[in-house]
């Protein structure tokens, strides 16, 4: 979280906006009455920028924690997928042995084979999801995952 707070561009953007709207409020306050709508608009923009600057570190912490939890969930899903592949392959092997012994039909063997292939596909998908979660987590600690508007 400390690394993310130090590196993320959202904090720089929020601080820039705060400085900009602080100067804008001073400029508007010097040129128009403090009861005018233009001054109230500048004051509201300043308050929003101040709020955003104060909340930016908390939002970054929430984002990093969410990405970490997604990473852990993807890892658990990948581990479960590996177990499912092993179980499906063993079921296929047993169905083959049973077929050779004359105890099951060819359709049962093919069903077990299809289940094993589907388990391998799901495992490959979970590996990809895990790798993408790693990239998202690493990105959340460096440049960030949201767009900053100036």
What characteristics describe this protein?
0% strand; 150 residues; mainly alpha; 4 helices
Quick rundown:
The chain is mostly helical and 150 residues long.
Distance between the termini: 24 Å
Kindly estimate the percentage of residues that lie in beta strands according to DSSP: under 5%
Low-confidence stretches: none
H-E string: HHHH
Share in helix: over 70%
Radius of gyration: 28 Å
The total of beta strands comes to: 0
Number of helices: 4
Main sheet specs: none
Characterization of the model:
85% of the residues lie in helices and 0% in strands. The protein is an all-alpha fold and 150 residues long. Helix 2 runs antiparallel to helix 3 (37-100) and helix 3 (37-100) packs antiparallel against helix 4 (106-140).
List the helices and strands and how they pair.
Blueprint: H1 2-7, H2 9-31, H3 37-100, H4 106-140
